[in-house]
Amino acid sequence: MADLLSDEEIEAQLPDEWERDGDEIVRTYEFDAYLDGVGFAAGAGGVAQDAFHHPEMTIGWREVEVRLTTHDEGGITDKDVELAERFDDLR
Question: Which residues have a Cβ under 8 Å from the Cβ of 74 and sit 6 or more positions away?
Fold first, then answer.
């Protein structure tokens, strides 16, 4: 189990280009083409499966929105921040 992060910890640890939206952290990745976003989502899905921590992902035209929260804990934990950083590394 992971402990919920405090507001101060979230602010300090939130990766660049990620925002807080209530009990989630959110980022929209932009791409030059639709299939680039689909490829990113597939790669992110593999990383998420390896971490056994599954985000909400919405694929749109030339963008993918990713939302992370730790459902079991009811909010944002280190698991979310760590996975966000791993997704950024895919970019």
Answer: 4, 23
